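Take one protein record:
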Amino acid sequence: MIGVRGPRIPAHQITTRNLGAAYPFIAEAGLGQRGVVIGDDLLGGSFVFDPFELYAQGVVSNPNMVVFGQIGRGKSAFVKTFLWRQAVFGRKAWVVDPKGEYGDLAAAWGVRPVALRPGGAVRLNPLDPGPSHGSGVDGEGSTARRQMELLSSLASACLGRSLLPRERAALGVALVSATERADVPTVPSVVEELLAPTAASAASLRTELHELLEDGRDVALELRRLVHGDLCGMFDGPTTSGLDLSAPLVVLDLSALYTSAALGILMACATAWLQAALARASSSARGATVRTSGQVFLVVDEAWAILSNLGVARWLQSSWKLSRAFGVSNVAVLHRVSDLRSVGASDSEQVALAQGLLADSETRVIYAQSPGELALAGELLSLSATESDLLPQLRRGVALWKVGQRSFLVQHRLSPMERLLVDTDGAMTSVSSCTVSPPR
């Protein structure tokens, strides 16, 4: 058939089952059908994804994810509905929420966020023990080591520099002394040991008592801010009893401190507490017969706030690696790819740690980025020239997925009920007035 503009070729119809054979250099075979449906693979068929299944199959080397996206492009809608749909498989989600955006999702699940406020009624002890507490094991993931890493990271972030050897030693003996006194130490008890060290602590370091006091004084005064300063009332005592950690969704709401310069430090404390609680829960569930009983998603929203502090970034990368042993898929959420570079100078350790976090997250979900991000996105995410050029053109709800060495262009689909949960334009009705039931 010849048209005005040349030959007109009739449309060819084919099923998705045979599409890969018909167009072998265009159509991806997909990631299988085990997992939750994300939406449409724009090159054909549905897109189904499950990090735990892909990790078990060896498709990816870790179940962690990083999600990038400009405001209004569908990043938050994806994360929230992804967690919601995972509940079908009995999986739980724990979220560090610095902006207070997960309240509607929590309400739909029938739970209330744990709201942390200076001087508030809820306290979390970031030094709560992990599953190895009391076992005498001093391995990489032991409680004592985790506590020391966290305290060193917090102190380093507060001081704005790395700890000196004598400061680290003083902090270490203070932690040991606080643990001997109360079994489960708290930040206030460690601060007290730094400000009033014992003769036994000084003797263990072959130093004088007054020298040990001077060695740890700057660290104590900075950590004291969490105890008696403007950040008190959240992480300065034992964990408040009665917190329900068995819910399918646990949200730590830090929105009261979103504009605080110490947001990264507070997020680190919150994340440390979540990880210790998750490790204990996963350890106790290892004997369960349900395969997914110990699999949890830990979401760190606005992750740039943690990465911008060198000491805290070191701790986060370390914990990112360790949590895989407990069946945790970490999800870091950022706005721009350049957030990984803006945390410090180009050759700084902060940037290296941020990019290391990316290397430990083999699934990258990239929503629309500005043209100024293209060169960096191509470099850090190993994008082809075509993929980089595509990023500014992605419409709302469409993302480029990089899963291991494979690429997909995915249109995220929302059900009418899910639209109520993720609408942030202020036009939504309250979740409590809707007939929304969590997936079973």
